[in-house]
Design brief:
By secondary structure, the protein is of the alpha+beta class. The protein is built from 31 helices and 17 strands.
C-alpha cells in the first residue's frame, strides 16, 4: 500500500508532497520520510556520515536541559511537548519529536523551518530561551539529521557502552581551575569526546564549582567534594580535594598513637589533606560520650568517680565491654531500628505494632547477627499477633512499596525514583525496579485487612503459589531479578528466600556497608556516606578505604554489631576532642575532630529523668519506664516530639532532624513539667538539700551527675558561694542550679 501511495505522491508538487508525507508518517508510513528526502531539491547534507538520533540528537537535548525535570522532561511535559526524563527512553522521545502533534515539530522539506530548530535558537518565542546559536555544532547536527530524513536509526548504528572521565581524582590548590574530559565508548570500538555535551553537578559548589563546559573551579578554602558527570544514561564521578597549602611537619602522623585500623585509615586521609587532628578529649568527655552513644544514658555520679579514679590501662576497654552487656544497650539500639521499621498503629493495629517492637528488641536481647536479622525480616511469615516481623508485610501492601523499603534499609539504595522513570543519579531503570519488586509478588495475606483509623485485626502472611509484577509501561510480566549479580528463585519456593540469600551474601558489598555506615553515623556524628542510606556513585564516601575496611571487619565478625561498636569507640579517632584547631576548623567529612551533635530525644528525656531523680509517666507503659522503651510514637510526649521524635503519621524509614531549634530551647526554659520535676519533693534537689553534705561536695555532686565531670575552679567557687549564702533557701538555690545546668548547651549537646 505504501508503494502505491508513493507513486501517487510523486504526481504532486514538492511542497504538497512534503505536507502529505508528514501527515502519512504520523500513521506509520515510515518510508514516506525517505520519499520526501528524495523529492526535495537542493539537498544539502553537511555531515558525510549519517546522523544518529540516539548518539547525536538526544545528547544535544540532554546537554541543553530540554529533557530535564524542570522542562520537557517533567511528568506531563511543557506546553504540550513531553520528553522522557534525561533521555532515558529513546523510542518515546523520537515519537514525541517526529510523530506527535501531526509531525509539526519537523519540516523535512526545509529543516531550518522546523519548529524544533527555531524554538531552540529562539527564532520563535520559546519559554526556555535560546539553547544554542544558529551555526553552532548543535544547530548543524540537528539540521543534518532532519535533512537525512530524521531517521530513528541509521545502518549499523553502534550503541553507547560506557562513559569515563580521563581523570577522576583531582588535587587542586585553593582558587585553582582544572578541566574535566569525558570520553564515550561505543560497541563498535570507537570513542568520542563528549565533554561539551555532558551535564555536570558539584555536590558542594562552595568547595568546588563546575560550569557547563566541565571546568572545575576550586574555592578559596580547603575541602573536598565530588562532581558528577552525566552523559545520557551513564554517570561517572570525579573526586576533588583541596589540601591545605601549609604542610604539616614531616612525619606528623607517624608519631600519633593508633588503636586499630580505623586510626590508620583516618590518619592516612588527613595526611593527604594536610589536616592536623584535634587533641584527645578528656577522660570525663570520653566517658559521657561513650555512655550516651552505647547505652543511651548519662553515667551516674558514682560511675564517673569510679572511672576517673581508675588507673587501669585497660579501663576503657573494660568499660565498653560492660556497657555492651547492659540492658540499656538493647533498648537504645532497638529504638533506633524501630524508627526505620515502626508503622502507625492506627493503620496496622496497636497489637501488631507492639509485637513488631517486641520482635525488634528480642533480636537485640539475643544479639542476633545482623545478616540473620535481615533474613528473618525479609522472609517473615505467619500471624502479625505472633511473629512481629510479619507486621512489615501488613504495613507495606504492594511489591513496589516493599522493594523501596527493603532496598533502602538493607542495601542503601534508594529506588523510589526508578519506580516512575530511570533513576536520575544512578543506573537503575524501571525494569530494574519492578524486577526487584517481583521478589515480593507472591506475598499472600489472609485475615482482617487494613481499615484505618481502627485496624485491630489479625493477619496471616504467607508465600502464595501465584502472583506476579508487571512493567507499568510495557505490561510485561517480570521475573524476579536482583539489582546486580544472580539470585535464582527455586521452583515452588518463596522468592523472598532467594532475595534474602542474595542480600546477605558476602559478595553483596552494599549490605554490610549500609549498616556500618549507619552505626558509624550514630557514633561519630556523621556517616562516611551522608545520607546514611544513600549509597550511590554520585554520593561517594568521604573515605572509601575506611568504609570498605569497616564493612570487611563487620563481615569477618559474623555481622556482630557489638564487635563493630567496640572497634569504633576504642579507636583514637572516636575519642578526639570536638575543639577544632586552625587546620581542621572547616573539616566536616574526615573526622579530624569529634562532631558535636544534639542528644537523641529519648536520651535527653532519660537524662532529665536521671538528673532530677524523677520519672516521666508514659501511657501504655509500666511505671518508671524510660523513654527508650516507648514502643510507638502514638504514646504522647511533648518532650520527645519537641526534640525530634519522628511524626507518627510519616511512613518509615523515618529520618530524624538532628538540628537544634528555638522551640527546644523554649521548652527547656518554660516547661512546667520539667520545672515541677526539678522542684518535686522526691527530686535530687530535695534529697541534696536535706543531706548533711557541705556546699563544696554538693557542687561536685551536681557536676558529676549532670555534666559527668568535676567543676572548674571558677564553677566550684561560684556555685559553692551561692549555696553557702542560701541559709534557709538551700533547696531553692540547688533547684535553680539544676535548672540552669539543664538549660546549658553542655547538657543538650554531646561534646
Amino acid at each position: 500500500m505504501c508503494d502505491r501511495l508513493l507513486v501517487r505522491l510523486s504526481s504532486f508538487s514538492v511542497a504538497v508532497a512534503t505536507v502529505l508525507t508528514v501527515v502519512l508518517c504520523q500513521n506509520g508510513f515510515d518510508r514516506c520520510i525517505a520519499f520526501a528526502e528524495e523529492t526535495a531539491p537542493d539537498r544539502r547534507v553537511s555531515f558525510e556520515t549519517p546522523v544518529s538520533f540516539e548518539l547525536d540528537v538526544q545528547p544535544i537535548l540532554a546537554a541543553q536541559g530540554c529533557n530535564a525535570g524542570a522542562c520537557h522532561g517533567k511528568q506531563r511535559g511543557q506546553n504540550g511537548f513531553q520528553l522522557s526524563l534525561l533521555g532515558f527512553d529513546s523510542d518515546f522521545d523520537y515519537d514525541a519529536i517526529a510523530r506527535q502533534a501531526r509531525g509539526r515539530r519537523l519540516t523535512i522539506r526545509s529543516p531550518e523551518s522546523s519548529l524544533l530548530v527555531q524554538k531552540a535558537t529562539a527564532e520563535l518565542p520559546h519559554g526556555g530561551g535560546r539553547k544554542f546559536d544558529v551555526g553552532s555544532a548543535a544547530h548543524e547536527t540537528l539540521l543534518a539529521w532532519i535533512r537525512q530524513g530524521a531517521p530513528r536509526r541509521v545502518p549499523d548504528e553502534p550503541t553507547l557502552n560506557s562513559v569515563e572521565l580521563a581523570k577522576n581524582e583531582f588535587l587542586l590548590k585553593p582558587s585553582e581551575d582544572a578541566t574535566l574530559s569525558v570520553m564515550a565508548h561505543y560497541s563498535d570500538g570507537t570513542t568520542r569526546d563528549v565533554t561539551s555535551l555532558t551535564g555536570y553537578l558539584s555536590n558542594d559548589s562552595a568547595i568546588v564549582s563546575v560550569d557547563a563546559s566541565g571546568v572545575l573551579s576550586a574555592g578559596p578554602i580547603p575541602g573536598e567534594t565530588a562532581v558528577m558527570a552525566r552523559y545520557m544514561n551513564h554517570i561517572c564521578v570525579a573526586n576533588v580535594s583541596i589540601p591545605r597549602v601549609v604542610m604539616l611537619p614531616e612525619g606528623y602522623y607517624d608519631q600519633k598513637p593508633r588503636a586499630n585500623f580505623i586510626d590508620d585509615l583516618v590518619y592516612e586521609r588527613l595526611s593527604q589533606l594536610q589536616i592536623r587532628v584535634s587533641d584527645p578529649a578528656s577522660e570525663s568527655t570520653f566517658l559521657r560520650r561513650v555512655y550516651t552513644d552505647v547505652i543511651g544514658r548519662l553515667p551516674s555520679a558514682e560511675e564517673v568517680r569510679r572511672f576517673l579514679k581508675s588507673q587501669d590501662p585497660r579501663k576503657r576497654e573494660l568499660l565498653v565491654d560492660r556497657l555492651l552487656d547492659q540492658p540499656e544497650y538493647i533498648d537504645h539500639w532497638a529504638n533506633q531500628w524501630a524508627d526505620l521499621l515502626r508503622p502507625n498503629p492506627y493503620r496496622v493495629g496497636i497489637k501488631a505494632v507492639l509485637n513488631y517492637d517486641n520482635w525488634i528488641r528480642q533480636q537485640y536481647r539475643e544479639n542476633i547477627p545482623y545478616d540473620e536479622f535481615a533474613r528473618r525480616l525479609i522472609t517473615a511469615k505467619g500471624s502479625t499477633w505472633q511473629n512481629g516481623a510479619a507486621t512489615m508485610y501488613r504495613d507495606r501492601r504492594t511489591p513496589d512499596e516493599l522493594a523501596t523499603m527493603v532496598s533502602q534499609l538493607f542495601l542503601g539504595v534508594r529506588l523510589e525514583c526508578a519506580k516512575c522513570h530511570h533513576h536520575p543519579f544512578e543506573k537503575w531503570s524501571q525494569h530494574d525496579f519492578y524486577s526487584f519488586a517481583a521478589y515480593f509478588g507472591k506475598v499472600g495475606r489472609k485475615g482482617t485487612g487494613l481499615s484505618p483509623p481502627i485496624s485491630g485485626g489479625e493477619e496471616i502472611v504467607f508465600a502464595s503459589t501465584s502472583g506476579d509484577v508487571k512493567h507499568p509501561v510495557t505490561d510485561e510480566v517480570l521475573a524476579p531479578a536482583p539489582l546486580f549479580g544472580q539470585a535464582v528463585v527455586a521452583v515452588d519456593s518463596d522468592p523472598r528466600e532467594a532475595l534474602a540469600d542474595w542480600i546477605t551474601s558476602a559478595e553483596n558489598e552494599f549490605f554490610a556497608k549500609v549498616q556500618v555506615n549507619r552505626v558509624w553515623a550514630q557514633l561519630m556524628g556523621r556517616g562516611i556516606v551522608d545520607p546514611v542510606d544513600d549509597l550511590r556513585s554520585t554520593n561517594p564516601p568521604s573515605n572509601p578505604a575506611l568504609l570498605d575496611a569497616l564493612a570487611a571487619h563487620f563481615q569477618q565478625s559474623g555481622y556482630d554489631q557489638k564487635d563493630m561498636i567496640k572497634a569504633i569507640v576504642l579507636s583514637n579517632v572516636y575519642s578526639l576532642s570536638s575543639q577544632p584547631n586552625e587546620t581542621n576548623v572547616g573539616d566536616r567529612l574526615n573526622y579530624s575532630r569529634h562532631y558535636r551533635h544534639r542528644l537523641r530525644a529519648e536520651v535527653l528525656a532519660d537524662a532529665v529523668a536521671d538528673v532530677t531523680e524523677t520519672s516521666e509517666s508514659f501511657s501504655a507503659l509500666a511505671p518508671d519506664s524510660r523513654a527508650n522503651q516507648v514502643w510507638t510514637h502514638r504514646i504522647d510526649s511533648v518532650f520527645l516530639d519537641t526534640f525530634g521524635r519522628p511524626d507518627e503519621n510519616k511512613d518509615p524509614p523515618c529520618e530524624r532532624v538532628a538540628d537544634s531549634s528555638v522551640t527546644q530551647t523554649l521548652h527547656l526554659m518554660n516547661s512546667r513539667e520539667i520545672d515541677g520535676r526539678i522542684r518535686s519533693d522526691s527530686s535530687r534537689a530535695a534529697r541534696l538539700a536535706k543531706s548533711d553534705l557541705p556546699a563544696a561536695d554538693l557542687v561536685t555532686e551536681l557536676y558529676l551527675a549532670i555534666f559527668s565531670r568535676v567543676p572548674t575552679t571558677d564553677e566550684q567557687n561560684y556555685s559553692e558561694a551561692l549555696i553557702s549564702a542560701s541559709a534557709d533557701h538551700r533547696r531553692d538555690v540547688i533547684e535553680d542550679l539544676i535548672w540552669a545546668m539543664i538549660n546549658s548547651p553542655e547538657f543538650i549537646i554531646q561534646n
